[in-house]
Design a protein that fits this description.
By secondary structure, this protein is of the alpha+beta class. The protein has 2 domains: about 70 residues; about 100 residues, no CATH class. It is built from 5 helices and 5 strands, in the order H-H-E-E-H-E-H-E-H-E. Strands 1-2-5 form a 3-stranded antiparallel beta sheet. The longest helix is centred in the N-terminal third of the chain and has 49 residues.
């Protein structure tokens, strides 16, 4: 008497046998095609990355450098395209510099760009204290959570405005200026 496992094995073998060589060949071909497409996609991703890097280098380094060397800020080509070099301003406040930057902003009356959020964490079993404090603060019209930060776009706009006004910011703000090419029809 055959065991249940032996019967199942025989059924699987019969199924495979009934599939036939044509089906197995088709499956093999389709799997090879899939693998080839995946390789082509990976190659295209790599090519796109390389082209993006070259575009960046031309747009923000090479062409602006040639124009700057020749004292050009804009140029109109025969085909009607306008080429212009603009400056973009960026800043990045490192966590280590955050306190000194925020202090500088406050000391100079510019701290309105800092967002403030206040939060309180309670441990296990302190649910009642948390609820009581939240109700007290909400009763005073206050939201609970405190965190200070400056939105990156706000910081960028602030830095650009200050630089255009000829004002300097402390080095801790991590300011950098990038030249960028604009081509318009």
């Amino acid at each position: 008497m055959k065991s249940l496992i032996q019967e199942m094995e025989q059924e699987v073998v019969q199924k495979i046998g009934s599939i036939g060589d044509t089906v197995l060949s088709t499956l093999g071909t389709k799997c090879a095609e899939l693998l080839d497409i995946r390789k082509q996609l990976a190659d295209l991703d790599q090519q796109k990355k390389q082209l993006s890097e070259k575009e960046f280098k031309l747009e923000q380094e090479e062409i602006p450098a040639v124009m700057e060397e020749n004292n050009l800020t804009s140029l109109k080509l025969k085909d009607g395209q306008n080429i212009e070099i603009t400056e973009t301003y960026h800043a990045s406040i490192l966590v280590a510099n955050r306190e000194s930057c925020y202090k500088w902003l406050k000391d100079n009356g510019l701290d309105d760009i800092i967002k403030n959020q206040v939060s309180v964490s309670f441990g296990r079993g302190e649910g009642e204290h948390a609820t009581d404090l939240r109700q007290q603060l909400e009763g005073q019209g206050l939201a609970v959570d405190h965190e200070q930060n400056i939105h990156p776009q706000t910081l960028k706009a602030f830095v650009g405005e200050r630089i255009r006004q000829g004002e300097k910011l402390p080095d801790e703000f991590g300011v950098f200026i990038r030249k960028k090419l604009k081509i318009r029809q």
